[in-house]
Design goal:
The chain has about 100 residues and is of the alpha/beta class. It has one domain: ATPase, V1 complex, subunit F (Rossmann fold, 3-Layer(aba) Sandwich). It is built from 5 helices and 4 strands; from the N terminus they run βαβαβααβα. Strands 2-1-3-4 form a 4-stranded parallel sheet. The longest helix has 9 residues.
Length: about 100
């Protein structure tokens, strides 16, 4: 399983530096198509998105991300609405912090 990061160039550069091989730079116009390609990649187990980009997605794409069993989607950024505990519980269905 691989980790993929999709977003603006400045967002994915940090992931490239730490060794994420699938760090895909995208503009607002082609963000959804690049996310769709990652969702169709069977090797990707975790998808990382910027919280601002996640909020800018269409309802259809957000629904697809929320209902996909794989990859696990994690949004990171300054305006996160959920804490890590809630994200893990939603992603795997178990509260690991209990």
């Amino acid at each position: 399983m691989e980790i993929a990061a999709v977003g603006r160039d400045d967002f994915v550069q940090g992931f490239k530096l730490v060794g994420v091989r699938k760090a895909i730079s995208a503009t607002r116009e082609d963000l959804e198509s690049k996310i769709g390609a990652v969702l169709d990649d069977p090797d990707v187990g975790i998808l990382i998105l910027d919280t601002a980009d996640m909020k800018a997605l269409s309802n259809t794409m957000r629904r697809r991300l929320d209902t996909a069993a794989r990859p696990v989607v994690i949004s990171v950024g300054a305006t996160e609405d959920e804490d890590l505990r809630t994200k893990v519980k939603r992603a795997i269905g178990v509260d690991l912090f209990k």
